[in-house]
Design brief:
- It is a single chain.
- By secondary structure, the chain is an alpha/beta fold.
- 44% of the residues lie in helices and 21% in strands.
- The chain contains 16 helices and 18 strands.
- It has helices at residues 30-43, 61-68, 70-87, 112-127, 155-172, 182-203, 241-250, 254-269, 292-303, 316-321, 323-335, 351-357, 367-370, 377-392, 405-413, 430-438, and strands at residues 8-9, 12-13, 51-59, 93-98, 101-106, 130-131, 136-137, 140-148, 177-179, 208-216, 221-233, 237-239, 277-281, 310-315, 339-345, 362-365, 396-399, 418-419.
- The chain has an eight-stranded mixed barrel, surrounded by five helices. Strands 4-5-3-8-9 form a five-stranded mixed sheet, sandwiched between helices.
- Strand 15, helix 12 and strand 16 (362-365) form a beta-alpha-beta unit.
- Helix 2 crosses helix 3 and helix 8 packs parallel to helix 9.
Length: 448
């Protein structure tokens, strides 16, 4: 037991300050967590019955602090502590180990299913609105659990396993529950190896850009190209952008990756006919960084690409991460002449509201509708409605994922302005793209 140190001032006896207590919530702290686990493991040394430790991290807590102030954040943390204590199973120890992270020791939870059940229950408890007087705030929490002794026989190993499980929950999205296993450990190890290889590839300029043509559906003429990231590692082979782009975003180096890709794409676009535009995708992390517009404009300025030839694609999901900052970035880019399109339209939760609140130049219809246009009347009517709506809003429309002639024919009949997909051309590197253009522009060498 840690000794209590009495404090005196002006001759009065002051309350003892406990080194193992969190002063805000009154729960135990990281010291208490460690000691509780050590004591429980020693207690069961002769008969090593399993027990479980868990971590809970409040999703999106920092924006709450920023929006409502630290006092409101402290109030929410106290309410979280109260709820966890109120619903904790018998014998559990609840602690607050970091700012928005709580930990618990569960002596009577012996295996994975029990931990998952407790995690789901706690998740539901923390999803109820938090009362801040004149307002209510809804939050979620992510959970990671580790079962002793399978996930670690000493405290540090057990905590590391729980943290690995928590990290996997955060990767999967908000409000997830994960119990540590060897499979998860291997998955996280592979992700870390992939991260290091990707960081090295960015430094060595080994991540490439391919270009997919976008055509005018009225005459099938090429009007621009979308830049798509490609990476083939010497040891790992081809790695899908659906894997490495989200990884770069999760691990916090998407800006470095995007900068390299935009430089390559903009440089390639200089060799195209000047009427062709370059379409480039922005991530949700970039739309949360107020410096994004300045960075992007600086890059194309250094390369010498006219901002009016650049079109940036953003998804509704990315916009929703921080709508205020995203709107500021979009406004700054459009003021500089850059066009902005809403990608994957129709798959978000409030697409019509985004069209009202943001100033877009173009809408890209998600391939989920285009791929079913020939066999599904509902998809056909949805596309027809989107095209009609965009005409009224003076927005251009691009249909993504056109695979065959019948899809192209239907889209033409519905009045869709532009399209892209394998029917019109697969993504190709800069050299192959120039050959593609050479077949269509006889005077291409003179275009710079």
């Amino acid at each position: 037991m840690i000794a209590e140190m009495p404090h005196r001032r002006i001759g009065l006896e002051m309350p003892a300050v406990r080194a193992d207590i969190d002063p805000l919530t009154g729960l135990g702290n990281a010291i208490c967590l460690r000691q509780s686990v050590i004591d429980l493991a020693q207690e069961r040394a002769s008969d090593p019955a399993p027990f479980t430790i868990g971590l809970a991290n409040i999703d999106g807590f920092k924006p709450i602090n920023d929006l409502f102030g630290p006092a409101a954040g402290d109030e929410i943390l106290c309410q979280v502590a109260y709820r966890l204590q109120a619903c904790a199973p018998e014998g559990a120890t609840i602690t607050r180990t970091e700012n928005d992270q709580f930990a618990f020791v569960l002596p009577l939870i012996f295996e994975r299913k029990g931990a998952e059940k407790i995690g789901q229950m706690l998740k539901e408890v923390l999803s109820a609105p938090f009362d801040l007087g004149d307002r209510h705030v809804r939050l979620s929490a992510s959970f990671g659990f580790a079962v002793y002794p399978f996930a670690g026989e000493v405290f540090d190993d057990l905590l590391k396993s729980a943290d690995t499980a928590l990290y996997r929950s955060k990767r999967r999205g908000r409000g997830q529950v994960t119990v540590y296993s060897q499979e998860i450990a291997q998955e996280m190890k592979r992700a870390t190896q992939l991260e290091q290889a990707l960081r090295n590839a960015i430094i060595a300029n080994e991540v490439d850009v391919h270009f997919q043509p976008i055509v005018d559906l009225r005459n099938d003429a090429v009007v621009g190209f979308e830049a798509l990231a490609r990476w083939c590692d010497a040891d790992l082979g081809y790695v899908s952008p659906a894997v490495f782009v989200p990884l770069a975003e999760e691990r916090g180096f998407i800006e470095q990756l995007a900068d390299v890709l935009l430089r390559k794409a903009a440089h390639a676009a200089l060799s195209w006919p000047k009427e062709l535009f370059l379409s480039f995708n922005l991530s949700s992390a970039q739309l949360m960084d107020p410096a994004t517009s300045r960075r992007l404009l600086s890059i194309i300025g250094q390369i010498g690409l006219d901002p009016r030839r650049l079109e940036l694609e953003i998804t509704e999901t990315a916009v929703m991460a921080d709508a205020d900052i995203a709107q500021k970035i979009v406004s700054e880019l459009r003021a500089a002449g850059v066009r902005v399109s809403l990608d994957d339209f129709g798959t978000g939760q409030s697409s019509l509201g985004r069209l009202r609140d943001f100033s877009f130049d173009k809408v890209k219809i998600d391939r989920a509708f285009v791929s079913r246009i020939s066999a599904d009347r509902a998809s056909e009517h949805i596309i027809k409605a989107i095209v009609s709506m965009c005409e009224g809003l003076e927005l251009e429309v691009v249909a993504e994922g056109i695979e065959d002639f019948s899809e192209a024919l239907k889209l033409k009949a519905l009045g869709c302005g532009m399209g892209q997909g394998y029917f019109y051309g697969k993504p190709a590197d800069a050299v192959a793209t120039m050959r593609y253009l050479a077949d269509r522009y006889r005077d291409l060498p003179g275009q710079a």
